[in-house]
Amino acid sequence: MPKFRIPCLPWRITLFVGYCLSMCAAAYAHAETQSGSEGRSDHPPANPFDRGNLSFQLVSGALFSLRNLPEDSPDFNYAQTNLRLGYMLTSPSPQNGFLRGNWEGLMEISNSIIFEGFGNYLGGITVLFRYNFLQPDWQVIPYIQGGAGIVYSDAYKDEFQQAIGQAIEFTPQFSVGLHCMMTPKWAVDFEGMLHHISNAGMSQRNRSINALGGFVGVTYFWGSD
Description:
Blueprint: H1 9-37, E1 54-65, E2 77-88, E3 101-116, E4 121-133, E5 140-153, E6 168-170, E7 173-181, E8 186-197, E9 209-222
Antiparallel strand pairs: 1-2, 1-9, 2-3, 3-4, 4-5, 5-6, 5-7, 7-8, 8-9
């Protein structure tokens, strides 16, 4: 009996859900801005990137494996949704400059559906460190982030491939992104990611997977009242 395969539809649904969440957040942020304009005070607004504040981010998208990087790398494409809780480790520097910003630590829970290749799913946790580039009055906040974690997958059960050799693999990753601030509390996010999967030689099968992809989502900031 042929193995059941999940069709391409789930990753499209994931992207659609992320898009809908972004639009809902934008609509809510606009309404919040309108309702708050009547009661505006003389106090300057709090900075959501000040030390000790929290962020809650949800992004969805898809990642596509890079063929022949490494050599003979197979097709392995997956839709991924990431839920992140962030903590502002530092406040923005009072001095201006191109590199002005702050550091943020994040804990990420990820879930992926494999829609092309072998296996069916990936799920894991990752620790990330992010640097937000902050300039006065900027409404678009660039950021870079990197980190590593572990992921569980059933892809290793396919013995005809050499990329993933065991149930638990390591997942270093690097991303660049944008927070498009709608209000001091809400942002619509766009992100590009390089995602690596391997087991550091703990299994004989460790050809690894390198994938590139993009995400869209929303962030809510706590502690910026």
